[in-house]
Design a protein that fits this description.
By secondary structure, the chain is an alpha+beta fold. The chain has one domain: SSo0622-like fold, CATH 3.30.1960. Helix content is 36%, strand content 25%. The protein has four helices and six strands; from the N terminus they run H-H-E-E-E-E-H-E-E-H. Helix 3 packs across helix 4.
Length: 151
Amino acid sequence: MRYLTDAEKRIELLEFRQRCTPDWDGLASLPDPAMVPYLLELNRIPGLCTLQSCSGHVAVDPRDGSEYITGGHLWLWSSRAMMKKFYSAALGLAQHPEIERLRILFQAHGREIVDIEFQGAAHGELATSMGIIIGFFTDCAGRDDEADLTK
């Protein structure tokens, strides 16, 4: 399914809640603890669901041991209505200095995903970046652009 439906969002959120429990054994898929409060807020927005995230961190280059900073990232799955609103306003989001890159990913199984790279925890900008992203999607959810956006 290309766009998020209410039924699919319920399934994704159930899996998210399971991954947030202390006894979850799939360690590779645990949400980044610094991101959880922001993910909960994003997941409350109608027509939007988080799929993947990272707050950003300091990494080590295995070739020479030097350290470098990775930015944060989010993968968001959206309803058709939210995607239309996203496309009409995305340039405004991309112009924030804390937002490093916006991309649309088309996954093999049909999902259209918003991929956002931002200045995260290692840059000292996690709260600012996430505030911008949450505010953007909250504004999108509140806009009534066209009567046919529910299709």
